[in-house]
Amino acid sequence: MTDSMLELYVHDGLSDEEIDRQKATYGPLTKDVRELIQLALQTRADADDVARAREHLAAAREILGCDREDGPYGTRFNDSGRFRNWGNAAIGLRNAIAPIGELHEDADGRVWADIHLGPIYEGPAGHVHGGVSALLLDQILGDAARLSGHPGMTGTLTVRYRKRTPLGAVHVEAKLDRVEGRKAFVVGHVADAEGICVEAEGIFIAPVWMVEQRDSFAETPRPE
Length: 224
Ligand SMILES: CCCCC/C=C\C/C=C\C/C=C\C/C=C\CCCC(=O)SCCNC(=O)CCNC(=O)[C@H](O)C(C)(C)COP(=O)(O)OP(=O)(O)OC[C@H]1O[C@@H](n2cnc3c(N)ncnc32)[C@H](O)[C@@H]1OP(=O)(O)O
Known about the structure:
It is a single chain. 34% of the residues lie in helices and 28% in strands. Strand 4 and strand 5 form a beta hairpin. It folds into two domains: 1-98, no CATH class; 102-212, Thiol Ester Dehydrase, Chain A, CATH 3.10.129. It has a six-stranded antiparallel β-sheet, with helices on one face. With 224 residues, the protein is an alpha+beta fold. The chain contains five helices and ten strands; from the N terminus they run H-E-H-H-E-E-E-E-H-E-E-E-E-H-E. Bound molecules: ligand 3IX. It is a peripheral membrane protein. It is found in: Cell projection, Ruffle membrane; Cytoplasm; Membrane. Residues 126-195 form the Thioesterase domain. It comes from Rhodococcus gordoniae.
């Protein structure tokens, strides 16, 4: 298990220019697909128009599929410390279902993101699915642990839903609380314009192999 995970942490040595080129190529594709996901939910086009649109989508699938990778994207590093988790379900640059865009980090270690959650993230009518809130919190709390120098796997995530979270603009933030051995304790929340909707505490545990990897980096790798 540990070995198979390590195989997905790849130092691929791509130049910064090549990473920027890939971002410029694939980022807009992800954005287009994200809009398509929402259109699949919201379109009122009739059966003929849907059939016509599907022909175009089939053509796009053929072009995109003729040269492709197999399997998960994994986590990829280069020499200047940039890392790409572009398949990540919460924040991956090339993952059209990932709701988190840009991640911010303050000098005091607070990590946060402002996110727009559209109708594809619905749970209770008009409101954010509780599992989506947990997804956001798992990611942001994990990132707060990692960016403070204590990367780990989620061991325990405790989530308290204090009030419903309306679809639309939400703010998610997290901060490292304390570290005990290989365990990082992180707290955070999801808020709407009126205040906190969901709060969480996470325990992120660095497996021994991850501690060894972490210590091989001169600086904490920065996500794309
Ligand atoms: C390789 C690159 C690293 C370099 C750094 C740079 C970048 C890093 C990149 C990525 C970083 C990784 C993650 C990214 C962040 C967020 C993404 C979202 C997060 C996830 O989506 S992640 C998926 C869900 N997650 C899992 O899939 C975990 C499955 N599980 C396991 O992999 C193990 O289970 C593990 C590792 C959790 C523990 O395994 P272990 O063998 O190390 O633990 P062990 O028994 O030695 O216990 C040691 C101490 O932790 C306590 N303890 C044990 N288990 C606990 C638990 N569950 N809750 C609370 N406390 C627990 C014990 O009580 C003891 O405490 P004490 O020391 O006080 O006695």
